[in-house]
């Protein structure tokens, strides 16, 4: 037996000669925003596993032999965190026979489904803007807030660069009493809502943002839509700086951070083909934090596998820039 081989454990030999450190740990989110799910492979019938997320001050022991999955419910097992957050998560074998193996993976929680497809219709008399939009599909969203930004229709430079309510001088204002608003009953995708904003002056022009807030008081804003259909291009593409080629059943990608404050989200795409034709690509992940510049791909990633990736940056006007294609692979 070489030093790289692993001896299968038996009754008389439960302590292996060379320990396999990779558990093929993976994580995913369910339709429930405040839940994290983990799964892994149990090599040797470990007595118990320790699960930890240091950033969230979370530690738990599974308490069950040969456990291969774990569910973390926020509000019960750990504090609530902003939907769309990401964590390094660790699972370690705790065994009376001193078998030691562990693994870690980056896990992302599901973001709030935002208001989408806002269309602004300017009334014929000019005194009202009528908005239609697609309702958030999240059933725990219980508050909607409407914001407007006045711009000079004769000067394109007066449109907002990005949405910002932290600065009282940003030009964004909240409609405190949105009385002329109604929508289709029920939850789910493709539910259309309507909102009318009455203007004081016929020549006033506005851009709009709608924020959806859930029952935990976490929120996500829509993209910006203006009455003159103005858009603003994303500042620049961000490049994937590294994609691993030597790890088992995992490809780790890193990229540059998009630093313009008009950031809305990253979208990571993947294909088995080098030129990534449109018919072959799949959306791997959507990330709503600009400082998330790493992703662990463990979805259908076996040893000896190659995948091609590109990263899309989308700004608050919905305009995108796409990175160059980058190859990642697992070890043979």
Secondary structure elements and pairings:
Layout: E1 26-28, E2 35-39, E3 48-53, E4 58-61, E5 69-73, E6 86-94, E7 102-108, E8 116-122, E9 128-134, E10 141-151, E11 172-174, E12 181-183, E13 192-198, E14 205-214, E15 219-221, E16 225-226, E17 240-243, E18 251-255, E19 263-271, E20 282-287, E21 294-297, E22 306-315, E23 320-322, E24 326-329
Antiparallel strand pairs: 1-2, 2-5, 3-4, 3-6, 6-7, 8-9, 9-13, 10-11, 10-14, 12-13, 14-15, 14-16, 17-18, 18-21, 19-20, 19-22, 22-23, 22-24
Secondary-structure element order, N to C? EEEEEEEEEEEEEEEEEEEEEEEE
What is the tally of beta strands?
Answer: 24
Task: Give the total of domains.
Answer: 3
Strand content: 35-45%
Average pLDDT across residues? 87
Number of continuous helical runs:
0
- Unreliable stretches, pLDDT < 50, 5 or more residues? 1-20
Q: Give the biggest beta sheet.
A: 5 strands, antiparallel
CATH fold name of the largest domain, please? Immunoglobulin-like
What is the CATH architecture annotation of the largest domain? Sandwich
Q: What would CATH call the class of the largest domain?
A: Mainly Beta
Helix content: under 10%
Distance, first to last CA: 20 Å
Radius of gyration: 24 Å
What does the overall shape look like? elongated
CATH superfamily of the largest domain: Immunoglobulins
Structural class: mainly beta
